[in-house]
Queue: 3 jobs
Job 1
Amino acid sequence: MIASRRKYKLHNSQAVVAEQFDDRTQQHEASSLGMWIFLATEIMFFGAVLTAYTVYRNLFTSAFEAGSHLLNAKIGALNTAVLICSSLTMALAVHAAQTGRRKRLMAFLVSTMLLGGVFLFIKFFIEWTHDYKEGLAPGLHFTYAGPQAGHVAMFYCFYFILTGIHAIHMIVGEGVMAVLLFMAWRGRFSEQWYNPIEMMGLYWHFVDIIWIFLFPFLYLLGAHF
Amino acid sequence: MSSSEFPIMPRVHYLNADYGIKSWLLTTDHKRIAWLYLISITFFFSIGGVAAALMRLNLLEPQGMLVEPETYNKLFSIHGIIMVFFFLVPSIPAVLGNFLIPIMLGARDVAFPRLNLLSWYVFMTGGSFVLYALIAGGVDTGWTFYTPLSTLYLNTHVMAAAGGVFIAGFSSILTGLNFVVTIHKMRAPGLTWFRLPLFIWAMYATSIIFIIGTPVVAISLALIVIERIFHVGIFDPALGGDPILFQHLFWFYSHPAVYVMILPSMGVVSEIVTAFSRKKIFGYHFIAFSSIAIAVIGFLVWGHHMFVSGQSIYAGLVFSALSMAVAIPSAVKVFNWTATLYKGSISYEAPMLYALGFIGLFTIGGLTGLYLATTAIDQHVHDTYFVIAHFHYIMVGGAVMGYMGGIHYWWPKISGRLYPDGWARVSAIIIFVGFNLTFFPQFILGYLGMPRRYAVYPPEFQTLNVISTAGASILGIGYIIPLIYFAWSVRYGPVAGPNPWKATGLEWTTSSPPPTHNFEETPVVTEEPYGYDRLAEEIQVA
Amino acid sequence: MPHAFPLFPQEASTLAPAVDHLFYFLTAVSIFFSALIFLLVFYFAIKYRRRSKDEPPPKNQVINNIPLEVMWTVIPMILVAIMYFWGADIFVRSAQPPNNAMEIFVIGKQWMWHVEHSNGKREINALHIPVNVPIKLTMTSQDVIHDFSVPAFRMKKDVLPDRYTTEWFEATQTGKYHLFCDQYCGMGHSLMRGWVYVMSPGDYQRWLESGVSGATMAAQGETLYHQFGCITCHGTGKGPSFNGLFGKTVKLSDGQAVVANDAYIRESILYPTSQIVHGYPPIMPTFKGQVSEEEVLQLTAYIKSLGSKERNTGTP
């Protein structure tokens, strides 16, 4: 174990600077700025869908409230808690990387992945499956027969589109975390270089924040408790 | 200096540093990636061009000379989709931007070279989807994909085409991201913001638009695809959807997209005008800030495509005012370029002919934009050939001429060879003449009322259509000749040497072609760009 | 030979000269600035041409002149401001039909125009109107977005599915003018054309009354009012009465107040639950799928005929 750790221990501090960069600082700043810009594009991406959703919400307020009411806000809240915890474990993973603690880093990455997995499991196999069975899946199985059914269908369209795109982002995040986990296991990260973990942290927190918008927009506005 | 008398090719440079197909398809060298894009977009341009040729041939006769209306509808759709998304949007950024930005900044490469390569693959994937749509029978939505036509009433390959554009959008986003980070973080020592070449300012503004705008069109097209797959009514009025919402989402990107298509050309023109009048640019700060202003205001004007759409007249009035505002920075640039010529030392090589042509044609194109921004006039000419003439003056008379000028200007740097300037000047003039003959009559046709996207038309419009088609054939010839001499020059052209134009700029301080890492040593910048005034002093003192 | 090579369509409406005059102004400005730039570029390019290959860059380069920058920013701003306000003035007036405009109804569908006059007379791909009378078109589409464009009147407007749009014009010259669909609508877009026939008032009246097979739109609407059973609620107090309704401000159950216009009536017939009148239960069934767009227009005409808050709208 110790031998393998030493094999991959970083001796040359320049070893992890990509050749287009002059030094580690430049590389670090560049990847941070790059990730922030990427997140800006994601804001525009989700923002466009949320704008469309808001337009229709204003047009069909009572139908959207009815649709929202049919969602299970408790499960949504549970999922929110799960995701917030996963952001906590992600932040702890970044901290572990910053302090060069490999085992801890791996543990927190795994925890984040597991919590993310729980979120996705609840989303797909509890919520979506339930909605499908209840006949609330527009285009596939929609049998809602209450007033303004067409507009309730519109609500569910956006529900599935928004949570679906969010879920895709989470799945991509899980994939990247798996790669980072592997890299961490091979000892690629240290106090001197933990850039990718930090960037992953930014991305994961962003995915969390998007959910923090989606949850009230979809589950809470107009719902009665 | 004497080395320019007998220029020699460097022994090792980025083109011969590595051989084999893998070294090209798996390259992370921004210069090689620029070549990949150059070849791809030339390919797409020819497809779009063939579509245009067929359209103009069809329009020789009022009853349609060549094709049925269904086919004509597919031709203008593929022409628009390919020319906008697979030629104009990537052209200067992906070819010249990729090649030049690191060199102009004194850097070894862009910030994220592998992301850069991924951009190209994403672009080609999107292009494949669109090519599939074309080969499998075509798409007839128009490049604007308006709903509910595209979602509910067409049976052509809408999803493949929309999907292809959606995918290609990510190529723009990644390129824009790469450029912004590179420009922020990888400037050479001493290269402050106001020492940057104006090409960089233009590319920076363009990249902002890529980043903020492209995701919105991506969603718009994704929603169309979702509606078609799941038969849900996002834009279907029968199910509560609003087709006008699609127009808002679509134009929110597609208007800034036209600034994506023109800003880089303006950057090229700034570079060429200084080099070929051997003068510092007039009003550097004004041009730089105008680029940013165009990008910002450009996000606020999309509703001018929708004056007659049923949008409220108040919205129309606001968008009209903002559209007037966005014209002003462009005008400022034209005046500054013209003033740069004053008391210059002007030569007429092909790049300069293209740049001067740009100034004239962009002026006409921009002024005709004012007609469209004026609500009362737009009410008459909306969706007529007047609009087509306007945007072709900007896109072809402006953007493509800027692109051609840039390719000619930097060709010696990119290939290490000179192209035959005599032929190049002749082509530039053929293009200028053919272009005006093709598109000026269309202003008249539009005001007379001939609608766009018409496969057949009333007979009284025939004369102008025939003139336009005649011009198009000349224009086509003008584009084919450069293909031939550029290809020729790669093998047989005279060696260029590091600075055949005797221009200033970091790109001219390294060899032609540059080494893979661009510079033997990282340059240090101590003065403002376009230092022709200092050159003048030095020669005077010497 | 002015007609052999026309540069302008005929000016056949009150709007046309206004638009054309603004167009002339923009053209004058455009020619001025284009010529200015072309001539300056040409002049500088020749006067300052490089005379020898080794000519050094010019000395004493002028590269900044703030007053010049201000001037060529402010002057264009003033010119575009003139264009804006002039255009906005025409635009706003062109968007507000006079109260006494004659109403004609248009339904666009792939790929033809159905036109119906208030007296029930129908036509396809043609619009007959009297000269010197303001005409207001109320339009809707049965499928995709179309556009009703009459270049000689300098007017067009998109025609939308499930919604009404309106355009108005007053023809000033008799004659025959192109009608184009001006929003790409699929295969037959370039064939979705017709003619606007502007006639003298006498000719128009004769045309209007000839060959009218059925009743006026309002009379047909009254038949439908009974046929669809509207009377069972709206004639008995269970639903709001239609007398004097058109043009009235209606209070809705959610507190909003709306004007009972064409769009309101259409929405009430097809989407009754979207706007419930204050004080009434939400029990009206929808007639979507049962009543056509043409029938909606006829029902609206009937409701209008029961007295309205607006002045009488032309030929019954």
Job 2
Amino acid sequence: MQLRPLLLAVLLVLAVSAVSANAANVVWSGLVIAENVPQPAPIPPELIKLEQTLKDLFGYNQFEVIGQSDKTLKTGQEDWLANSKYFALHVDARGENDAGYTLSLKLYKENDVLLETDANLSKSSPLVIKGPQVGSGQLLLVLVVKDDEAVHRRRHAEPANPITAGWYRLRRIIHNLTP
Amino acid sequence: MKTFEEKWTAWLDGQLSGKELTEFEASLPDLAAAEAEKRDALRLGAFLKEQLAAQALSNEDFFSHQLQERIARDTQDRPRSTSTWWTIPRLVWSGATALALFVITTVVLMSQHPAGEQSEYLTQILNSRVDPAANPNATIYIFESKNSNKVTVLWTEGLQTLPADYAAK
């Protein structure tokens, strides 16, 4: 009989953990114009982590966001649009998996589809798409899965649970083994 | 008034005496044959007594015997368990082996890389397409950045260049 409250407490903790683990993620999608200018503006906060990578890859010194969207994914089935005056990036999420989200992307120039792609966007691996040359610059599409703020803060405050990490690793191995 | 059969039975049992015995024996047509029959009956009675006494079961024994027979019948009727592999020692060994495998797997998985490290998953491009009519010379490359950001890059070449106006917000 004394085990019953303990069992209930454990179940509650597990339920809370499961809810926390599946907390909504935010996908940031941006239309970025990269170009070389004499006095580059500071890089937008969403791109700070990628600044050096973008500079190394494309050789530009300024990255300006001309359109963006912060979409909170709860079901993994949402769709949204990040648009500028002439371009629009339509993102259609087709579900969540261990790694992140399966997305269908379409880049529109006004009404024309310039580029279509399907991707598994990983939570730990941003996606950068090199678009057309625009004037002296380059259009880039950037997609990043941002952690939910609460989760982000907790992850910084506490080390990851080794059991949970092991469990996810086991799932991943089994997932990779199955055809 | 006794019938002949009653007097005959009493005579066989030796229960007639005195005048009654004399009158009965005088009424028999063949006394010698009757005497022989009496001896046979007495012998048969003695034999039966002896046999019945040897084989008779007490109430307790009879009950116990019946019970055993019933148990035996029930046991025969009951379908026997077909699997004899899961004996207790085998169960214990199987459990211990499974537990050991679980512990080994867990240790191996947890020691693959330190907890808290980022997932090794990279973004994967499943397919991509550029409108061939508008961009006939377009080509697409996919690669990952070499640094720690693990950026997946979809690199297009040959897309139509657009005027600077298109950079407007």
Job 3
Amino acid sequence: MNIDTSQLFAIFGVESLLGLLGLVLIVTDLLVGKGRLTGPATAVRTLAFGGLVAIFAWSFVLEPGAEGALGTLDSFALFFKRFFLATAVATLGVAAPYEDRLSAGRAEFPTLLVFTTLGMCLLSSANDFVTLFVGLELVTVVLFLMAAYRPQLPRSIEAGIKFVVIGALSAAFMVYGIAFVYGTTGSFEFSQISAVINAQESLPAGLKFGLLMVLVGLGFKLGAVPFHIWIPDVYQGAPTPTTAFLSVGSKAVGVVLLMRLVYTVMGPAAAQWTTVLAGLAALTLLMGGLGAIPQTELKRFLGYSGISHAGFLLVALATHSEASAGAILFYVVTYLFANMAAFLVIVIVSRTDDDNHMDRINGLANRSPFLALVLTTSMLSLAGVPPFAGFFAKFMVLRAAVAEPALVWLVAFSLLMAVTSLYYYLCILKRIYMRDAVDTGFLEISGGARLLLLLCMLAVFAFGIYQQPLVQAAEAGASSLFR
Amino acid sequence: MPDQALNDYIPILLLAGFAVSFASLNLIVSWLLGKRGGTNPDKESAFECGMKPLTPERRRFSVKFYLVAMLFILFDIEIVFLYPWAVTYKSLGMFGFIEMVLFIAVLIIGWWYVVAKGALDWGPRRPAVSVQSAAPSEQAS
């Protein structure tokens, strides 16, 4: 096999720089910290932040078009690379006020974050099952570490162990499926597999089985029912910045790979999958809509809310049209802003990581009107209330789905579940505005956190009122899947 | 063609069938031929070459063993890559050389990290990085 180095760099430029940044962070930790276990957190965090922002800015200079044996840099991949880099930058912002609670490993946290982001960017370019699997393992193994990051808290260890077991299980499904796909098509490459699939009228049983197993493996990442069991426990136990990263990043990884699988690998043959995906979507919506109601823990609550959002993403995947692919990209971006703001508020209001009971936000409007406003915006956006971006995201998904006559029942059902979910989001608002505060302490908001919260809130507003730029970016990103 | 390719998996299927039938055959035969009856403490105890167990069978290992084992695997994998590279060194040319230098450089940074953070210090003066390292008492090291 002949490998062209310059072409590889053209495809994996972002990844190479992220890898370099990760190594520089390790070396900085060692040189500045001189081997202390606590590490020079500020230096490493600042460097990681600067590096990620620089790479994020550089990714806007990149032109899509490079394609090779191991990956592709189409506009879809580029869109998600920017998305993952933005997620990583936001997670660093969420981690900054949290860092004091870590007794060790403060310098390693940004480093691990950079390496996971590297894996995620790799996944967004995958056009080969081998790249896909390597990238997925890079992402999940680092996320295991980040979930079990506070070994003195039993809950964090529990989250780590549960995540490892589920991660291993989903990887096993995945490899098993990939083996069958390879066995029946003789290739790992998406384009060749797609050619084999669409050359015949009915798929051979082995290939069907293999693709289904891959779907199951990705379902774990996305948090689709019945593969969602890990979500509440891991979300609750993991440190809050990890949960924030997990909720957006891991879900987006599932989305990226499912979109590649459904739109590129399956292609037109994916029409056979509409029932499977629609069924998964209905189950996921039901679980997300009803499971969140009895929750009293903020992070568990957001976990269930994330499941319900996974349901909407699956509705769009089941639709299988160019409009629905664009809707998914729009959806994940609005989810990023609303979710990051919510998690940052949780970090600020929770005194310790053990205590994220919903009581913490009681009477928030009196204690800090700014935080109350941010959390209100983000909850209303997650619920899909009109002036906010979340509404338009749901609207795009459903508008695309309603064009498909076979999916009208699903649209009706998802509308029903959206109304149900409004109930529990409003319960949060009730706590903010109508209950007396349990805590009375002063809420310290650092300048950086204030900026990030303001940015997220503005984005949620702005993309709700003036959607055009983001819609265009999303449609451009999605269009490269349908060539 | 695609269905033909699945034929390659037939030996695996045969092996799986053999494994299942061998295991179940042994269980059935011992159930048929074995003497059944009550239990006694000796029968319930763990098998240790026919003797009574000398020590409790659940032993705790120092976390250092796991750490060393994990690090060993890491550098073991390096050798796994180095061998085929060394064999095909001439045909890979400059590209292979640079790739391997990059690969080893990454590993050396990892090794440096391990040594500098004290993961290989077993002596009493400076505790190794372990799960306990997050406990506040060890921060001062």
